Amino acid sequence: MRDFFRSRWRGQVPLDRLFWRDMLLVGTILSIASSALALVLLGLKLPLWLVLVVHFLPVPYTIFLTVAVWRTAEKAGGFKAQLMMLGSALWLITTVVV
Length: 98
Prior knowledge:
Blueprint: H1 2-9, H2 15-43, H3 48-56, H4 59-76, H5 79-97
Helix pairs in contact: 2-3, 2-4, 2-5, 4-5
């Protein structure tokens, strides 16, 4: 697990894999799952603080992935890397707000 985070932070993972698989696929699945679970907890009338904690649980991971994409894209350079930086910023906003 430690290697997973370290390799992404250092930009050792290909940008395409980091953006498409790690961020968009896995990150989105985690965000949807935590939101769905939060809605279930809300429906069960559990405390609001618990619902909010569950809903926002993936936010640190989301921020980490966004920063990792930016760091890796800066190393890669080019138009495609700039689009991925923009896409990661929009993805971060979308997953945190929704």
